[in-house]
Amino acid sequence: MKRFLATLLSGLILASSIPAGGFADVADDVASDIMPVEVMPISLDIPRGTGEPTAEDMEKALLAVKSKIEIPDEYSEFSYYFYDGYMFSDEAWSFVWSTPDGNSRINVNCDKNYRITYYYKYSYTDKPSGIAKFLKSELKSKADDFIVKIAPELKKKYEFVSSDYESIYSGNYVYKYQRKENGVAFPDNSIKVSVNSITGEVTAASINWLYDKTLPSGAATVTKEEAAKIIKENMKMELVYKSDNIGIYDKSGNRKTKAYLVYQPSQSYISVDAKSGKVYNESYEWIYNSRATEGAKDQASMEVNGAGAPVTLTEKEIAKIQELHELISKDKAIEIVTSNKSLYLDPNLKSINASLSKIDKADGKSSYVWYISMNDPRKIDYTNEKEDYYRAYAHAAVDAKSGKLISFYASLKTYFNDKDKKWESVEIKYNKDQAREILEKLLKSEINSKFKNSKLSNSFDDYVLYYNDLKKPVYGGYSFSYNRTNEGVEYPYNYIYGSVDGVSGKIYNFGYYWNDYIEFESTKGVISPEQAMDYYLNNKGFDLKYEIKIINKLDESKDIIYSDAYRMDYEIRLVYRPDVNPMYISPHTGEQLNYDGTVYKEKLPYSYSDITDPVKYRNIFLLANMGLGFEGDSFQPEKAITVGEFNQLLSNIGYGYYNKDEDSQAAKTISREEAAMTFISRLGLEKISKLSGIYKTGYDDEASIKSDYIGAVAIAKALGLMEADSMNKFNPKKELSRMEAVNLIINYINLQQSGLLY
Asked: Is 30 strand, coil or helix?
């Protein structure tokens, strides 16, 4: 059971963060872009929880759901799933109605008290995508009314937070709400409703809510200033390097990765109890922590020195390469590994193979690596109950030029006796300090130049050796990781790691990831950690709020697989919590930074002081609601649009990638005839548009249209992409205005979504 539990808890990390009744909320973020999974009737041989599905309970659940959700008659097919509370706090029902052809579905989930937690409607035949027809403000009442309809008990217990446009492919506005009671926000409880911007129909909703827990009063005895002081005493700001992984080139033409400096919190989570001042460093309690071994970093598949995927070579190719590059032989590479007394090598590793691979490195150059695989070739007789089924294996990588060890991993034998069904007691001969000394001796021998520019970042007990009489795990190994440093500052994207067996004193895991082509930002002139902390806490997100503490419980007297041995409970507490996102602070200016190192600016809805008529300028309002527009407080509809602005709009809406900084034409304006050709080309009609002698535009100024553009202008007119002025003139040389560009883009996307061209 103990071994099962370790695996179980690691797999429940995500699921365990979801309050009871809200398990379907995980799917809500992608619900609009994926098809619902077929829900099948319950199987009676699955692990059981505390609840039991009964016809009476199912009838009550269905009646409760259908009293709030209308199910059209054509949705005549029905299936269900009963979630019996196994490893969670509550039971739940999931119902699916669909049309006989399976093209349309409605999925509704409810908890044990028949409260709706999830709603999703989808039809394969509908095409609710493309440019919005309604504004966010026009559809918000749809979302508000739907919440009242499915969860009337939550009235006056939540507040509207924001609304987003999902994408042109779903066409949904997503309205977000958070719980708010006693004048205090509760961001861990939330509601989301998706409304289609074209049809105005509610397509999805999720309610993530703790109903049955009492909230503490909203009265804080600790002030915000006092909480800030407590956080400063218990958390520091750390200066570290980050990378945007975008290659840059030095004066010699070598490709490098830029590493920039940021201040970030020393821990990912902290909150201060608003009543007692107590500091919380976790929002949950685990009975047992799952320990993922570093052995997962099997070096047979690891990148080497910033390298890409290896390419395997034939024997004849290897022979020629050895001649040209003076590489060590296969036998020599094997000897380097097998003769190394520091490595954990099982005596039964008799089958040894090696292959030479070419590695393409980040600078465009190449290196060669011997990959060595060792196995225990003995066959297993599964009919012999007394036989030890364990068969050892190991992998290693050796630099084919220098002969230095790049990586190593060896399996370790478990000390669980399958025959007697008990753990064997084993003597641990080496402590953590001794293990570290053993590892670092190897690091100095094999990769000293890298090791000198790194620092120990983490160490922990590794792998369960056995369980003692108190049923507590005894760990048999020690794992260490070292982050690369520059000028004393850590660069965590490059690292060294290794593990040492406490029984044998041998290294069973070793490797590194190191890019030799990094351009580091200088540490000169950085602000102090204390200053960075002040900037950090002054950002939006640090405030009084309710939060959830997840409590995990294990009853060891019960069988965890077939009972309710593992359960979750919840506690609500009033805290000050710095929800600052992004969490990075510039060490030079104190500004909040994005994850790519650029200055963070809160994305606000586009709003223009010179655009007031919602009828005349409706397309501008629609694009603004879709998150598309121009920076600044004025739109200037008659201003000529530039190539950069034009392409940026298309890029933001999902029609191609555009890098304004690399476009030499970004500041250039666009003529109307050039715009017509641009979009006809995007539609794949450029060659057809250039057929001579077949096109007539019907415009009075056709003679002024460039001959190469006549066909494009004619097709654009026929497709309704562009219009003439009141004098039936196209004005081909006139600069395209921002207003015209908006109308053209909307017409183009609607044409794309119509299916007319396919």
From this structure: coil
